[in-house]
Design brief:
The complex is a heterodimer of chains A (about 120) and B (about 200).
Chain A (H helix, E strand, L loop, with lengths): L1 E5 L3 H13 L5 E4 L2 H9 L3 E6 L8 H11 L5 E5 L4 H10 L3 E4 L4 H12 L1
Chain B lengths: L2 H13 L36 H45 L7 H27 L1 H30 L4 H5 L3 H4 L9 H17 L1
Helix pairs in contact in B: 1-2, 2-3, 2-4
The chains are: A alpha/beta (about 120), B mainly alpha (about 200).
Chain lengths: ~120, ~200
């Protein structure tokens, strides 16, 4: 199971990778913004996406909308500091499958990933 | 913080034109004429201006770059501790299998050492998770700059054309207030919104 992590914070990417490895997901690719995320995605093999919202170059919302134009089925989890109801609804309408507000616990990330993977 | 970092901060704070710093601007203030909006949705904009706002943003970028780098150094150390504990546990497992270590009391002592090793490992992971504060603090700072810009524009507007509407004034601190700092502080809220959205999708 290859997971793409898109976040402009190297610290946050590290934390997510660390959490994923503790719950058994070690095949990970990283990107620092949506544009780079699309490039990684186009290289193939990615089965799930974890993305931040606020990023330079291409933000998470635009990234999700672009991904959905190409791939309507890939599970996408948004992990962001945006906690307002209208933000969450906007993300879901854009094609995000589930939503985690930072800061999160490893248990929450695990729960969300497992629910997305069914 | 070493001298080069202090110099970098001082440089970004004003002794150097802001245009010299091509750093990202994910939550940069919107253009002066743009309508009020949450900082997180503000369009990206370069910092290549020498205005006070441009200098503040450059300074902020320098501060967040330093904290990100230092946080990663702490993460490196935690990684190292984690690897050392893992190595220690592997060595202890080998020792447990040695003929001289089959004594009941020795086995019991080794088990206790293994348990405490696992406890250290868990605490290291917990500390790593807490490093999320760096990214959250950075985004809060970026939003504060955005809101300062809004206040600045508001005051200019007030002096020029009179009062703006209540909604615009009320939006100023909204984004900061909705950002939590404790792990899972917003989980129930986010889960409820997701659930409500899914139910509506099914109905529709």
């Amino acid at each position: 199971m290859k997971i793409l992590i898109v976040d402009d914070s190297s610290t946050m990417r590290r934390i997510i990778i660390n959490t994923l490895s503790r719950i058994g997901y070690t095949d990970v690719v990283e990107a620092e913004h949506g544009k780079a995320g699309l490039e990684k995605l186009n290289q193939g093999g990615v089965e799930m996406i974890i993305t931040d919202w606020n990023m330079p170059e291409m933000d998470g919302l635009e990234f999700v909308q672009t991904v959905r134009g190409q791939n309507p089925n890939i599970p996408i989890l948004m992990v962001t500091t945006n906690a307002a109801k209208e933000d969450i609804v906007q993300a879901l309408q854009s094609g995000v499958n589930n939503y985690v507000v930072k800061p999160f616990t490893p248990e929450t990330l695990k729960e969300k990933i497992e629910s997305l993977l069914g | 913080m070493d001298q080069s970092e202090i110099d970098a901060l001082l440089k970004a704070a004003g002794s150097q034109p802001a245009a010299a710093k091509p750093k990202k601007s994910k939550d940069a203030p919107a253009a002066a004429a743009a309508p009020a909006q949450p900082a997180s949705h503000a369009p990206a904009q370069g910092h290549g201006d020498a205005s006070p706002e441009g200098q503040v943003i450059s300074e902020l970028d320098a501060v967040t770059a330093v904290t990100e780098r230092e946080t990663n150094k702490v993460m490196d150390q935690l990684d190292l501790i984690s690897q050392l504990v893992g190595r220690q546990q592997a060595l202890i497992t080998e020792v447990m299998q040695q003929p001289g270590a089959q004594d009941k009391s020795v086995q019991e002592a080794i088990r206790e050492i293994m348990a405490s090793g696992k406890e250290i490992q868990d605490k290291v992971f917990e500390a790593m998770d807490l490093m999320q504060f760096q990214d959250i603090t950075r985004q809060k700072l970026e939003r504060i700059v955005f809101h300062l810009r809004q206040i600045h524009d508001y005051i200019v507007d007030l002096l020029g054309t009179g009062l703006k509407d209540e909604n615009e004034r009320a939006s100023i601190s909204h984004t900061i207030q909705t950002t939590g700092t404790r792990p899972d502080e917003q989980k129930a809220h986010a889960d409820a919104v997701v659930e409500e959205f899914m139910k509506r999708q099914k109905k529709g």
